[in-house]
């Protein structure tokens, strides 16, 4: 909610009914009046998912020591899945309703695919600083976050959504066209070719240029620009959301980015 141009969450991971070590200082319920003692307990919650995702990040770092934290995040996001083992769409465990990118982000992590994502969206420290400067923080606040003394915010994004993130959050309101440029780094073999496929609601036109990326070398970087056009101007004082995706693919890899569209009227 602080930065709606960045889609959150990023991913989801295993975390329901995990058998976990349990301190005997408290009972299984965690209540003061519960005097029972147990060495293990079944625990559920996002805090149980966190160590699994952290472990996967460590696994990717061990396999690719030169990858940045952003590259690791990108690999986990662009290879995540949104259909379960019955090939049905993911559902919210709370009420059984269909899940969406505002609930699962890019989807559920797939460790095997993340080890070889094909392409990654990398982000440098300088780009993160430009992002922070675009959020309206003071120079001192940015310095506190990045731990660097020579910050001037001379370079900042016009739109926080310009950050080279592996997902898109498109905000329509008083504007009908939103355009972003992203940069992909090739971590697949040399001479790899990727073609783009887009999916979105009928109310939004999506165009990507170029539609084919040819990587001659490992580590080569290529940019593409995507334009989102709201086909109809909506009226009223409502917030409406729809979803789509942008996929760069070839027979070996599918590099998928979730997209959320929001119409906000005040």
UniProtKB/TrEMBL annotation:
The Subtilisin-like protease fibronectin type-III domain extends over 162-260
Provide the GO MF annotations for this entry. serine-type endopeptidase activity
State one Pfam family annotation. fn3_6
- Superkingdom of the organism of origin: Eukaryota
Matching InterPro entries, A to Z? Answer: Peptidase_S8/S53_dom, Peptidase_S8/S53_dom_sf, Peptidase_S8_Ser-AS, SBT, Subtilisin-like_FN3
Q: Which SUPFAM superfamilies match?
A: Subtilisin-like (SSF52743)
- Name the keywords, alphabetized: Hydrolase, Protease, Serine protease, Signal
For the Peptidase S8/S53 domain, which residue ranges apply? 7-87
Listed under GO biological process in this entry are: proteolysis
Please report which protein family the annotation says this sequence is part of: Belongs to the peptidase S8 family.
Q: Which PANTHER family does the protein's record reference?
A: PROPROTEIN CONVERTASE SUBTILISIN/KEXIN
What this protein is called in its record is Subtilisin-like protease fibronectin type-III domain-containing protein
């Amino acid at each position: 909610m602080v930065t709606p141009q960045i889609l959150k969450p990023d991913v989801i991971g295993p975390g329901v009914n995990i058998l976990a070590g349990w301190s005997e200082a408290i009972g299984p319920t965690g209540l003061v009046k519960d005097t029972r003692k147990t060495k293990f307990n079944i625990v559920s919650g996002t805090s149980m998912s966190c160590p699994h995702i952290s472990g996967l990040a460590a696994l990717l770092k061990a396999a690719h020591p030169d990858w940045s934290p952003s590259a690791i995040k990108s690999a986990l996001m662009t290879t995540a899945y949104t259909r379960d083992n019955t090939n049905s769409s993911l559902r919210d465990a709370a009420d059984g309703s269909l899940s969406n990118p505002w609930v699962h982000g890019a989807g559920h992590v797939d460790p095997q695919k993340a080890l070889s994502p094909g392409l990654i969206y990398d982000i440098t420290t300088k780009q993160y600083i430009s992002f922070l400067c675009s959020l309206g923080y003071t120079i001192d606040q940015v310095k506190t976050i990045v731990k660097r003394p020579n910050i001037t915010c001379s370079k900042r994004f016009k739109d926080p959504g310009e950050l080279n993130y592996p997902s898109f959050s498109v905000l329509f309101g008083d504007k009908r066209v939103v355009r972003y440029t992203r940069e992909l780094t090739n971590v697949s073999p040399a001479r790899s070719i990727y073609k783009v496929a887009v999916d979105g609601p009928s109310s939004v036109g999506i165009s990507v240029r170029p539609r084919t990326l040819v990587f001659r070398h490992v580590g080569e970087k290529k940019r593409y620009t995507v334009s989102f056009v709201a086909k109809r101007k909506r009226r009223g004082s409502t917030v409406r959301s729809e979803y789509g995706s942008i996929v760069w693919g070839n027979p070996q890899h599918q590099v998928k980015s979730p997209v959320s569209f929001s119409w906000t009227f005040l």
